[in-house]
Amino acid sequence: MDSETLSTFSNSIKNGSISAPDPPKQPFVIGVAGGTASGKTTVCNMIISQLHDQRVVLVNQDSFYHSLGDDTLAEVYDYNFDHPDAFNTELLLSCMAMLKNGRAVNIPNYDFKTHKRIGPGCKVNPSDIIILEGILVLHDSRVRDLMNMKIFVDTDSDLRLARRIQRDTVERGRNIQNVLDQYARSVKPSFEEFILPSKKYADVIIPRGGDNDVAIDLIIQHIRAKLGQHHLCSIYPNVSVIHSTFQMRGMHTLVRDVKTTKHDFVFYADRLIRLVVEHGLGHLPFTEKQITTPTGSVYPGVVFCKRLCGVSVIRSGESMENALRACCKGIKIGKILIHGEGNNGRQLIYEKLPADISSRHVLLLDPVLASGNSAVKAINLLLSKGVVESNIIFLNLIAAPQGIHMVCKKFPKLKIVTSEIDVTLDEDLRVIPGMGEFGDRYFGTNN
Amino acid sequence: MNMKLFVDTDADVRLARRIRRDTVEKGRDISTVLDQYSKFVKPAFDDFILPTKKYADIIIPRGGDNHVAIDLIVQHICTKLGQHDMCKIYPNLYVIQSTFQIRGMHTLIRDSLTTKHDFVFYADRLIRLVVEHGLGHLPFTEKQVITPTGSVYTGVDFCKRLCGVSIIRSGEKKVTMVSSLSMKKLPQDISDRHVLLLDPILGTGNSAVQAILLLISKGVPESNIIFLNLISAPQGVHVVCKRFPRIKIVTSEIETGLNEDFRVVPGMGEFGDRYFGTDDDDEELVVAHTPLRS
What we know:
Helix content of chain A: 25-40%
Number of helices of chain A: 15
Shape of chain A: elongated
Strand order of the largest sheet of chain A: 10-20-18-16-13-14-15
Shape of chain B: elongated
CATH class of the largest domain in chain A: Alpha Beta
CATH architecture of the largest domain in chain B: 3-Layer(aba) Sandwich
Helix content of chain B: 25-40%
Radius of gyration of chain A: 27 Å
Distance between the termini of chain B: 55 Å
Oligomer: heterodimer
Largest sheet of chain A: 7 strands, mixed
Strand order of the largest sheet of chain B: 3-12-10-8-6-7-16
CATH class of the largest domain in chain B: Alpha Beta
Radius of gyration of chain B: 27 Å
């Protein structure tokens, strides 16, 4: 623990709340790869300039070229700049790790004339969105694993060659023979051996590069949306936090306040739970249906998904059953009881689930998602009964980041709907700031 | 097209899926499937489908398993859909975000075949969502509380000075009455309260204008009025928003328009009649009222 963290830590002890350091805010990392002159840089520059937002930074793989020694420099025309070994990937990884942990880094300044790192480098601050651009950023699995979205800019090879000739002869003053030699000797073979195969890891392929306004607009809008979200929602598209209003914040203030009476706690928890349930139901599938209104007009509507059930995690989860019943008349509700302390002691004590649960959509009910240990246990039970992962919607009132990481990493197709994401967990795995023992407060069983 | 997508999945993966679908789901035999694939499906793909890939704006590899790309497209459509055109004209008009669940509830309450019981059930669910959304527009003050774990939670305190006012129509006489919720008349101190004005259908906007004028005449500041509807006709929205640019309208759907009888289209019929089941005699729903105009 460094001194800064230590002092924050001791401050929080002084304030009467002992808590572990908050998990660092995770940036959304976008990788942009593609062959030489495919338009990667143009795409990235257009994104950055249209966003005008300091929370977005660009890191270029070119900055991480190895400096060339004098021996290599003498034969620089034989050097393969398109080979993975030309890059200092270890340094790239350590820089990205620093940024991901919320620290500023110095990105090396690579000079293309001398083929050496020069100067002190360029300081890059940690940001909400990091764009990592370069021909081979999708090649190394360790670099890929840092990314939340992987883009490959795909432009025909003849176009790319034409652009490269233009750039190297006109802008960089090299002779055409030279450029073509290098292209045939190293650029093309490296593209085929390393760059093109990395295309299969891409999530999105953008044809034509910088001329593709529709694709660039799409990426820009996406980044804007990510900037407006809780950072966990941008990393996990399957986490949905209800749009917060002052009214919701006010209800949260009441259910979180230790001084709130049981009566008020139940009233406001119920109102919040109802909103979570309604929001969760909004994620169910539907079929189209046209009906006629009393004015004789046609209304193009939809019909609800009928195969639905609730499963509550005893005891707190039972507090959510009423809201679900109030929205879905006669809905079947199963129960799961999990008991135990700490990370490894969770035991399934009791389960009573609808016999045909495997063919249903399941709303899993638990007001507090803390470490995620019981949630994982409950979800594994549902999966073992044949429920399809993507048919599970997990409804919470509040969720800790640790629980979200645990559940989302393990079950990427399940949906989590919650009304607030809390700060962290304390060493007893209680949610901070949290709302205490939900079941005790809701059912009035403090003693 | 404004956006052209091409879903690009390897040929072998596509063939494997097709075989599974055609043999398991459609019960066809494997040799027929393969025969059809090599005779028609593959040549058509090579000749017609693959060449169209060059027109795509975005290529999505792997199809349905590609969550990142699907999230990208979904978010994009959401921002494009985000607003009803009228919300762009009137910043004080709020349409609650539609989900299939909300659309499904609307389908039920609009259907002329829906029973009274179901009508009330789904209308209540929708009204509750509109009310929650409307309450979200009230002001607040900051408030810090201590949670049972001993942590500080920086929250807000509700606005306490609040009242509801519902508009009641006496059907045949076309007279607008205004009555306060749970009180015999408008609260004495209404001028320093925030007012939630309740009317499930905003049609021409005539009754709404009268009700709002009454509230303003009682000293309620225009900006303290939040007008809650289940459905709203564009004509009514224009009338109310133009005349009272500082009130807020919260609704769950904007309609197509009004017909020649000034009924909302597609609409849901006479709301009061369907909700209270008083097709013949709607006098009894006027429980407590202050006549606005007789």
